[in-house]
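Submission sheet (multi-component)
Chains listed below:
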Amino acid sequence: MVETCSVCETRKPVVGVYALTSCYGCQLMIATVEKILQISEAVTFKSFHMLTSASSHGKVDIAFVEGSVSTEKDLIELKQIREDATVLVAIGACSIHGGVQSWDQGLRDYPEMYEKVYGNGEIAYEGLAAKPIDHYVKVDHYLPGCPPDEREIVYFLSTFLFGTYPERKERPVCHECRLAGNPCILIEKGEMCLGSVTTSGCNALCIGFGIPCIGCRGPTPYDTASFDALAKEFKRLGKTREEVLDRLSIFGSHDRRMRQMVEKAYGGEK
Amino acid sequence: MRYLKLPHEKRREFLIELKGYGILYAPVSISEKNFDYKKVDDVDTIRFDYNRTVLPPRKYFFPPNETLFKFDKKDCRLIDAYEDPGTFVIFGMHPCDIIGLRVLDSRFIDDQPDTYYKRRREKGIIIGIDCLPDEYCFCNIRDADFADRGFDLFLHELDDGYLIRVGSVMGHKIVDACDHLFEAIKAEDISVMTRKEREKQAMFQHYENWDNLRYLLELQDSHPLWERESEKCISCGNCTLTCPTCRCYDVQDVPELDGNGGKRIRFWDSCQYREHGLVAGGHNFRDTKLDRFKNRYQCKNAYCETMTISYCVGCGRCTQFCPTGINYRKNLMEIRGDE
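Outcome: structure written.
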């Protein structure tokens, strides 16, 4: 079993919040939760750039890492964080699934793209194709969302402070969507909604406003997302293979089953 | 049983009268094609012509999320967290949903009494209303097309009003308190009611006897249907969430930030999810989507041997609200060899 904070019974846990390649939205979300004052009294922030300029690397009990590994520098920093942390939590779409910067994962030649953007110009560090952090280091817990939901951030911290650990959400968005009292927009309007293959935790916020889910919380874990069945339904609704792949790739391009299952649904046809 | 007539022009007044007993929940329109039970402030928003609500009314007795108790690590104690909903009225329940509650009662009251469910059940006033079947309904096969009990009042629409059956002491109290709204039943009202009943019966699409279904489900365990149909399933859980008799739940401890207190919550689960069959040690009773898909059919039709009715009431929700159009009734009929 994963180690929880070893010292939370005797002293304040030391927490680090770090960002690799990302929009810093996850940090902003943590910094602005309603209970941030209570949190900052319950833990000591060793590093949290959005809250304190006195941030530095060093030993922490719990590390929250947002962002994907998109540069050599990210990778060095991530490995350092892993070495310094007892528990490492991947937080947000970039960190867990590679984020929107992974949209084209596996579809284009990276060196070619790199050259197109940077030409011969010199930059301080080498770029890498954006990858989720568990591609490089062991991740203990996953806190999905773009950005994560306030209740889940507080839940994660609370479990660590209590001396236990957070349970991973597996239910799809549909579960929360029905409970939220929304009618299904895939059935009723034929919208290309990804709720059925996307991890819940958002209370189906977008669909509540009539906007189909684009999967920002990532595919449901443990290979439970049935991309093939969903793609078949989209196909029946007249969506093209490209449209479906494009939509599923926004936040799911690193799912190893996704492309294959969509191809299966479309049976190789264009 | 006591019978009364509520003329159409007194319907509004009757509904306002009902609001006097507590919060009134009734079917309202939530989109172009869908309905759901909501708290009703304006009785004119109630839809008498609804086919089915997305969520079944069980949500008022067995809430999708509820706190079971709070705990305190320091003093090592549990604190009751039950929030009394007060008396509430559910207006407009169709016979299938009333019988669906009887299934829940059999599990949550008769079998292993569940305090949380029981306390809420005692607070709910149930006013049923008769309906006409659409293409998804097969309640007649499930013997759930007529509610003989399980309600306080039940309304049958006539040409110029409603014939009301009074089904409980509470039902008597309600009609006694506003008896100026009602008229005595006349012979022609009864003939209108029986005509409408006949018309309703003629509208169903199937009339088979499904008593052998639970045995056939066991015998047909290797039928190619399972593979074919489970491949269409996205495991979204819509079928179980919208089912009036699904009652699986999961519990979770949610601590406070003080590292000391917290609460234990329970919430609706679905057998269509991987973690439903997951137990200690990482073992899973239903490790594949195929296993999980079969389970729902088995549970609804074969796990109900102590009841005289099946756990499926034929409301048609699991088929109407399946995003990929898996037709539960058709599948069962294929298993039976009907189609």
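Remark: DSSP finds twelve helices and seven strands in chain A.
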